[in-house]
């Protein structure tokens, strides 16, 4: 493996991914020289210097990188870097990401990844080019899992890659939906690609590695430490054309992914749920707080947000078509004036409808022709139930 | 009864409420002269002239009004007009209401009512001054009824009058919730106050008449004709400080009430529901189409919209308080680096957290004091489940 790639691995090991100072160093001096400067303590950032010093006490970065490269190859995985054709360029937008109220370090350290480990046969850039993230609670309800599975299926069925985090609940449901559609799905992990977490999803990860991709910005063997999930979430938001949140409790990690998508100006979509469900509190709060978070109820709405203009547009919600739909205003008034039971003469109907008799007679005749009213000896009446014309079949 | 009041009754009988031409005539000439001009055919609007002529063929307006006045008194009801102190002035805002895409007559004829019939002991203006409309589907699900009852209860409990249409489903649930709280509720009917519709809600209407108000702009004896429900809905929207939609199918009458509230620039609130429910399609469509339609999940959000500034404000959604919440960033990193099982020494924890050893030791000592980490012979470990400090009780 060449020096640049090894340096990127070493840098990823030396400082947790997302560090802005390291990303800037790499941009300024290239990975190899950036690594050299960091190891020499040749950086202004005091905190970064002490972090690196603590890490260096645990091992030699070049040696760690060399071992990681070997392990990667042995696993049948590969390293993808910005130097490669398959690098998903859109994660570079993280360079400009700034989160509102970013007080915690994980909310400040949101620089692009330096490299990505990949398991699976697809070209990474191609797989992510037309992709949607579906994220949500690990403790999803049956409703959330049902909706996530449906969205995963529907997106994959329309040729979109479904990206998620491989967790229990919504993540797993979205991945499964995509797999069931025979589509492509990508799990972005917060640990090494050799030990996808949680182990309870091992069978699912095996299917994903076969039909899609497992990716991670951490070295093989890396633990799924808790802060890493949040660090990872920025990649889910940045790698995709849009993010859909299915179920989230207040203050959950999934809402953080959506906030990152919002900060990136990517389509940020939220599926509502029952207000009686604690698992939808985070979803509803996002919809209330962020005018640009878009309420979606299913795949057609999602495609409307991420799809190409003019294609994949959602039809407006409508009830079943009825013959009355095409009536003019005055006919509607006459029809609405007919009694539920019994019949009424044209004069009374005209008065009820607020129309003159001549107009009313003309409309009555048309309504009779359409089968919407019946003329009887004692006047006009509504047809018996079951004898009304079928929806969509006027006349 | 004086001439002006009788003229208002006669006008209401002569032309369906909401007619803009009639409302303008009354504004210009007063009710008595407006009635005289209409009866004499002394109006420019051809359609109005023929409507009036058809009505006049069915009876004499002054006589009809006199009879209605007698019936009103016999019922123990009363007529309230703009000349009365208890007239709810806010319905006058309907004068400026214009609906987008108003093609049907019911969407154009949205002028203020000329008078209102009232059954019940409360002062009408006072009852409606601090009121919220809660509307929704007649075919509400158990979820919708549960939510509407809760909102009705919560609003009434906070001293707000709950206004609705007395229909099955959401309307009835909202009324019942308010009654159960021992609060005030108002049913705005689309027929005479002597025969509230639907008859299946008769017991409910009796309770409302006793503890709240039944009101209508139609003469006693008037039928609940279908167009009247839409005409009535504008009064529900205009009489209240805001409207909440709980459940609505696509293209339902309840969505029309909310559209009227939106057009009046009143707080227009929508409760979301499961996207798998046909009964929430209309609600979600409104939230998608109207940026000023506000998603609400319960009474605190509703009060935030309609309440006086500074009072009745909703707290942000939060999970239960945890001792970790008040930790600084570096302590969080150390805490998150502790292994799920077993213990780790300070050097390893420092490296995992990306901190220098001295900082890590300081944070470890504090975390130990807070009971969030335990110091053992083999290093620092998470406390056993059940031995962690209780939420909200740091230290």
Q: What is this structure, in a nutshell?
A:
Chains A, B: It comes from Plantactinospora sonchi. 2 copies of one chain form a homodimer. Helices cover 45% and strands 10% of the residues of chain A.
Fold blueprint:
The structure is a homodimer of 395-residue chains.
Chain A: H1 3-14, H2 20-39, H3 46-56, H4 61-75, E1 78-80, H5 105-108, E2 116-119, H6 124-129, E3 131-135, H7 142-157, E4 161-164, H8 170-180, E5 185-189, H9 202-211, E6 213-216, H10 226-239, E7 243-245, H11 253-263, E8 268-270, H12 281-289, E9 293-295, H13 299-306, H14 329-337, H15 346-353, H16 357-369, E10 374-376, E11 379-381
Architecture of the largest domain in chain A, CATH level 2? 3-Layer(aba) Sandwich
Report the sheet-strand fraction of chain A: 5-15%
> What's the main sheet of chain A like?
9 strands, mixed
Name the assembly state. Answer: homodimer
